[in-house]
Every structure is written in structure tokens, then in C-alpha cells.
């Protein structure tokens, strides 16, 4: 059997629950998606628990699972993945954190965890933080997309076994970090000092003075979470024997893919948000498929609308994805198998990740088709794939695509 190339399309947080704004339908059900529906009709469908039943996946742990890596064994912390995504190469002993620019009062009470989704000025704010030294430990700090940023602490005696300072809710005072294992007290103390120091520096920064004059929320504090250290993990090629590329905009998934040894090209207009250039990303997918065995196309916008509680916006963005998919599928060869799924559910009614299983379709020329006619959370429950675990996805795709050797005589 000739091997097929594999294109995995992950629509971040696309799965949802019935919405009042959409008259009891999910955004996927309400959206017009002729391209996805056609593939569902011609392919095999099912549901997937990205990590396990009842488990609320993070995007990082979910992607590990979907790539065939047990997240309970290989997860190294979100901060590490974000650092790799921004091109910060960690040394042994470094500790990385995923950070938010946020808005705080002088008591460090959080007024907005995303500083009004700040869209400009973060590079200058990051420069005011980068290079700080606290008790002999250097702070490496870099801004990412919108309110997101990354911090790496470098120095002796550090540990990633500390709690985060982000309270995850407005109206609460920034949490005090504590050691979660003996020996991490120094790192927790440095993190707490950094949180206070970030406010002292940023609240008087010219960028924030200008923002307040314009009626915008200041980005005057850094909230750190997701501590991680240098990972020990085999590459994707070592595990699966495939040369892989990732077409992705957000730093988190970029970082994971780089750590796994995938090629991650920089794509103009790939913002990691709802304004990303789907056209440029589809062109990058076609280019990558020329000389790679597996290509990941990651799309973040669906998750953004889920977190914002915008069911109508999510529906409309799914329709944009479908339009891009229609143009892409027509240009694919018969040797490409397509899998479309999500890394987790982000219901607009919850505004956060949830444990609901996500829809999955797999299409390839000559492969079996089931009786599903459209692609959404409810219809695929009748599909031939049943309900699978995320760790099974790569094995299924490799088996269907001719990548797995026969087991036995």
C-alpha cells in the first residue's frame, strides 16, 4: 500500500454547546459549511476525548496527546512551550512562564486580565522589563501576541515547582506564589518580587500614561503562570518516522512543534487571532505538503470567539474556515488524507475550555465512508469512528495512511 500524506486541521476550541443566540444550535450546527459537510459525507466520523473522559484539556496538553505523546509523561509546562514559540532557547536550570499583560490597581487587584486585549505598545513595555535582575537571577522577557508574553528566569537554584500569580478572575488581588515542592521557595520569592516590580515599572511607563489619556486600560502588571523547565522529549520523526511541518500562528503551538522537531515557517499575516490570514496559511499548507509527510494546520480564531462568549462571531468564523478549506481541498492530490478536529471544546456559554468531546472527520480517497451527512458535534456521534481517545488519533491516521507495519505474520 502506498503511503498517504496526512493533513491535520485543528480548529482550536471549535466544539461548543447549544447557544441561545443561535436558537439552541451550536456554532458548528448553525454555520453553513458545505466543504466540511462534503468531507464528512465522503469520510469517517466520530467524537474524540482529546485527553480522556471528563478531563478539561489545555491547548498544550491536548496537542501533545493528538500528536501521540502521553501528556502525563511529557508535559513540560506552558511557559516552556511559549518560550520556544518566541525563539527563546532555554538552558538547563531555566524556568519559563507564560505571562499576561494585565490591568491592576496599586493594591495589585486585577481589573482586567488582558489589559483590554492590548494590541500595540507591548514591545516597548517588554523592553522595560527585559534584563531585570532579582537576587542574582536574570529576567528574560519578550512580548507575544496582544496581551500575551513570556518570561524566562535564569540563575542558580531555580525550580519550576511553584504556583502561579494569575488569579484568573478580575476583582482578585494577584496571588502570592508558593513552592509546591521543597526547594522551590527561592523561585516563588523571586516571582512575587517580580510581580510587584512589574507594576512599579509599568504603571508609570509612557505607553500606559498615553493609554489612560486615551481612555484605554493600562497594561501595568505582569501575571505569570504555567511554569516549565527544559523538556526531555523525543522528536516527532523519532516517534512516528515522519517529516512534519506546522502552519500555525500562536506561540504556544509553535513552541510545542519546534520542541518536537517540526518545521515551523513564519507566515505573513498569521496573527494567532481572528484576524489571521487564512489565505496565506492555506498557501503555506500547500507548500509544506510538497516535501513533508504530515502537515498541521492550526487555526486559533474559533477559540478566541469561544472565550469571548460570542456565538455569532464563532459561527461566522467557522464559515470563513470552511470557505478556505473549499479552495484548499480542490488543490490537494489524491495522496493526501485529511483529518479535521478540535483540540478541545470552548463553549461560548462557559467562556473557557470544557471536557466535552470534540468532532472528528477523516477523509482519504479510497477509504471507507459512513452514514454521516454533515459535520458537527451531534451528527458525528453516529459515525463509524465512535468515541476515541486523543492518543489514538495518530495511530489511526498512520494505519489508514499506510504508515504502520503489520503486527504479526
Summary keywords:
409 residues; alpha/beta; Alkaline Phosphatase, subunit A; seven-stranded mixed sheet; six-stranded antiparallel sheet; 14 helices; 13 strands; 31% helix; globular
Q: What does the model show?
A:
- By secondary structure, this protein is α/β, with parallel strands linked by helices.
- The chain folds into 2 domains: 5-76 and 232-400, Alkaline Phosphatase, subunit A; 82-228, no CATH class.
- The protein contains 14 helices and 13 strands.
- The strands form 2 sheets. It has a 7-stranded mixed β-sheet with strand order 9-10-1-11-12-2-13, sandwiched between helices. Strands 3, 4, 5, 6, 7 and 8 form a 6-stranded antiparallel β-sheet that branches.
- Strand 6 (137-143) and strand 7 (148-154) form a beta hairpin.
- The protein is globular, with a radius of gyration of 22 Å.
- The two termini are 17 Å apart.
- The mean pLDDT is 95.
Whole-number tally of structural domains: 2
Tell me, what is the CATH class of the largest domain?
Alpha Beta
Number of strands: 13
Helices and strands, in N-to-C order?
Answer: EHHEHHHEEHEEEHHEHEHHEHHEEEH
Question: What structural class should be given to the helix and strand makeup?
Answer: alpha/beta
Return the CATH architecture of the largest domain. 3-Layer(aba) Sandwich
Percent in strands:
15-25%
CATH superfamily name of the largest domain?
A: Alkaline Phosphatase, subunit A
Global shape: globular
Uncertain regions spanning at least 5 consecutive residues:
none
Q: What Rg, in angstroms, do the CA atoms define?
A: 22 Å
Strand arrangement in the largest pleated sheet? 9-10-1-11-12-2-13
Amino acid at each position: 500500500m502506498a503511503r498517504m500524506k496526512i493533513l491535520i486541521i485543528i480548529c482550536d476550541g471549535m466544539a461548543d454547546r447549544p447557544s441561545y443566540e443561535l436558537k439552541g444550535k451550536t456554532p458548528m450546527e448553525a454555520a453553513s459549511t458545505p466543504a466540511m459537510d462534503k468531507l464528512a459525507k465522503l469520510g469517517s466520523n466520530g467524537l474524540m476525548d482529546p485527553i480522556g473522559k471528563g478531563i478539561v484539556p489545555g491547548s498544550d496538553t491536548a496537542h501533545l496527546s493528538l500528536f501521540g505523546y502521553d501528556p502525563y509523561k511529557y508535559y513540560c509546562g506552558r511557559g516552556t512551550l511559549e518560550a520556544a514559540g518566541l525563539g527563546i532557547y532555554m538552558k538547563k536550570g531555566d524556568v519559563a512562564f507564560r505571562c499576561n499583560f494585565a490591568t491592576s490597581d496599586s493594591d495589585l487587584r486585577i481589573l482586567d486580565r488582558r489589559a483590554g486585549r492590548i494590541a500595540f505598545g507591548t514591545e516597548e513595555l517588554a523592553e522595560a522589563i527585559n534584563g531585570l535582575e532579582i537576587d542574582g537571577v536574570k529576567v528574560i522577557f519578550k512580548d507575544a501576541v496582544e496581551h500575551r508574553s513570556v518570561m524566562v528566569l535564569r540563575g542558580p537554584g531555580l525550580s519550576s515547582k511553584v504556583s502561579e500569580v494569575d488569579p484568573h478572575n478580575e476583582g482578585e488581588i494577584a496571588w502570592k506564589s508558593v513552592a509546591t515542592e521543597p526547594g522551590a521557595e527561592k523561585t516563588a520569592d523571586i516571582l512575587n518580587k517580580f510581580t510587584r516590580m512589574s507594576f512599579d515599572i509599568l504603571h508609570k511607563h509612557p505607553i500606559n500614561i498615553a493609554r489612560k489619556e486615551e481612555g484605554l486600560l493600562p497594561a501595568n502588571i505582569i501575571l505569570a503562570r504555567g511554569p516549565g523547565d527544559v523538556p526531555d522529549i523525543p522528536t516527532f520523526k523519532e516517534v512516528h518516522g515522519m517529516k512534519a511541518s506546522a502552519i500555525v500562528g500562536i506561540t504556544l503551538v509553535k513552541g510545542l512543534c519546534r520542541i518536537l522537531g517540526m518545521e515551523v515557517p513564519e507566515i505573513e499575516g498569521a496573527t494567532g487571532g481572528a484576524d489571521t490570514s487564512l489565505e496565506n496559511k492555506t498557501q503555506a499548507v500547500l507548500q509544506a505538503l510538497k516535501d513533508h509527510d504530515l502537515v498541521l494546520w492550526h487555526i486559533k480564531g474559533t477559540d478566541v470567539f469561544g472565550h469571548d462568549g460570542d456565538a455569532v462571531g464563532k459561527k461566522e468564523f467557522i464559515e470563513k474556515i470552511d470557505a478556505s478549506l473549499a479552495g484548499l481541498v480542490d488543490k490537494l492530490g489524491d495522496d493526501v488524507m485529511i483529518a479535521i478536529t478540535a483540540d478541545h471544546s470552548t463553549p461560548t456559554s462557559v467562556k473557557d475550555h470544557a471536557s466535552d468531546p470534540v468532532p472528528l472527520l477523516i477523509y482519504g480517497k479510497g477509504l471507507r465512508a459512513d452514514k454521516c451527512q454533515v459535520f458537527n458535534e451531534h451528527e458525528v456521534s453516529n459515525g463509524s469512528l465512535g468515541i476515541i481517545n486523543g492518543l489514538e488519533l495518530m495511530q489511526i491516521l498512520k494505519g489508514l495512511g499506510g504508515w504502520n507495519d503489520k503486527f504479526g505474520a
